[in-house]
Design a protein that fits this description.
With about 270 residues, this protein is of the alpha+beta class. It contains 3 helices and 16 strands.
């Protein structure tokens, strides 16, 4: 009898422990699943936040109502020329939760940190203009006189000059209601010594990337070809071409000639003779 009681007791203990273990497993699964779902929705919500500026059509609609949905926001000044005490002040923007009357207040936020290198610096954000601030004479100068959007400011240091470079969207070529980096971009170059802004563009193509040639201010520029004519370059299935930009003359020239290009295409198609 005692042995039977001990067996029954042990079975009850094992049953209780087993039940507790199952409960713990279920709770753990629910906790992990809940966290994953939360992260999923947070990720999707972050993706939905549009960093571009509103299209001209949307701006006109808001102006008719004497309202606005975006406000100017200034980044922290960034010293780019120590010798002459010259700073750049990126101008970004904030999307309001609700459209406000034109007399609304502006919002301020801190700038992004940057990483220094020997020859260049880079700043990332969501910008719509750039101010050059000279501490010595207390002068400021804004670079753009029109509505633009860019998210990358590159500062290149040369012996005789400092160049600022930006890939800038100016038109809603993709027709999605905002001007952002999904649209075709131009490459702007600003010289601190010349106080001059240059522009590299092809209205039917997108600026994909650029690179300075060795020991030179000339550039290799990669253009994305919009094969399906939807106003947006898609890296996965649309091609690029490269051209050389002469910094002195402003000319764009092909690096790869038409003959070589034709031969390579025929080799790819298997139609070469």
């Amino acid at each position: 009898m005692k042995i039977e009681k001990v067996k029954n007791y042990n079975q009850k203990i094992l049953a209780i422990l087993g039940t507790l273990a199952i409960i713990l497993v279920i709770v753990s699964i629910l906790g992990i699943g809940g966290a994953a779902i939360s992260d999923f929705f947070r990720f999707n919500n972050d993706d939905d936040i549009e960093t571009g500026i509103l299209s001209d059509e949307k701006i006109e609609e808001l102006q008719n109502e004497n309202k606005r949905e975006q406000v100017i926001s200034y980044e922290n000044p960034k010293l780019i020329d120590t010798l002459n005490s010259v700073y750049i002040i990126p101008v970004s923007h904030k999307n309001l939760n609700e459209a406000e009357n034109i007399n609304g207040l502006l919002s301020i936020r801190k700038g992004y940190d940057s990483e220094d290198s020997r020859y260049s610096r880079r700043f990332y954000g969501s910008y719509n203009n750039l101010i050059i601030y000279n501490q010595k004479n207390n002068l400021t100068n804004k670079l753009f006189e029109k509505r633009v959007n860019f998210n990358d400011i590159k500062v290149e240091y040369f012996v005789d000059d400092i160049l600022l470079l930006f890939k800038v969207a100016e038109k809603d070529t993709y027709k999605d209601g905002v001007i952002n980096l999904s649209d075709f971009k131009s490459l702007y170059i600003y010289s601190l010594s010349e106080k001059r802004l240059k522009k590299i563009e092809n209205e039917e193509m997108d600026i994909v990337s650029y690179k300075f040639l060795n020991e030179s201010k000339d550039l290799i520029v990669s253009f994305g070809i919009d094969k399906n004519n939807d106003g947006k370059y898609e890296d996965l299935n649309e091609p690029t071409i490269i051209k050389k930009y002469n910094n002195v003359t402003g000319e764009l020239t092909d690096i790869i000639g038409e003959k070589t290009n034709s031969e390579l295409q025929k080799m790819l198609e298997g139609t070469e003779k």
